[in-house]
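Hello,

Our lab assistant flagged a job as stuck in the queue for most of the afternoon. It eventually completed. Since we weren't sure the result was trustworthy after the delay, we are filing this so someone can double-check. Below is the sequence as submitted and the structure that was eventually returned. Let us know if re-running is recommended.
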Amino acid sequence: MTTTADRDAFRAALRARAAEPPGPGTAGGAAPPAWAWHLVTVLHELLPTDVADDWVDRLHTVLTEHRVPRGLNAVHRWQADTVLPLLARTSHARDNAAVTVLSDLHTSAGRSAPAGRDAWHAALAPVLLRLHDAAYDRTSAYAQSHTGARDFALANGYSAADADAYGHEYAHLSDEVNARAFAQSHALALGEALSVAYATDGDRAYAQTWPGAQARAVVRACAGSAPTDGAAAAAAAAVGLADGLLTALRPRG
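-- returned structure --
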């Protein structure tokens, strides 16, 4: 039986973003696995402050009542029921067939019928490209490219107006190239690592893919795809991911 002190210690560890989960006593005798701890520390940070502590209390209750089993069953459920539906609603009016294929693999794996490494790799590649393309911060990257190119032009004798125009031209030309390189590099690295983790049902291997960083990418993708209020979209995505994880951590009814 856990106590208020256990709950407080668990909450404090999340707030501090401790590298390791708190002692077993804070979660009913079973500390969360490394992948779950990596993920929940980031989700807690992403949540709006008015809901974060309540979510931590609910998470603590779930971990107290239900020990997280070995393997990635909860991850597959979370991906199929929460993460991929969120990604399917991100913009660019793209065909969601690739998202559906990956979701089906996660659903099957969650029912103890995992696919092989090659099948995972083929299904992950287009979805990871889409995710990281949508997550790329084009606004900040454009501003940085513009500033660097403008300052270079000014240092080489351009007038202020011509330097500004040069900066915009350079930023415009480099924007999509940089976004594509960003998406491809992340998809290449993550696709291989996730394929191995999913095919082997390896919870330690999955932890090494930094699932919290992947959650950040989903939140950024949702924010960047919002037609108006990106901050509100990011908050809603974070809440959806966090609540969906609690559902996935509970045993099936």
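-- support follow-up --
The delay was a queue issue, not a problem with the job. The result is valid. The mean pLDDT is 86. DSSP finds eleven helices and no strands in the chain.
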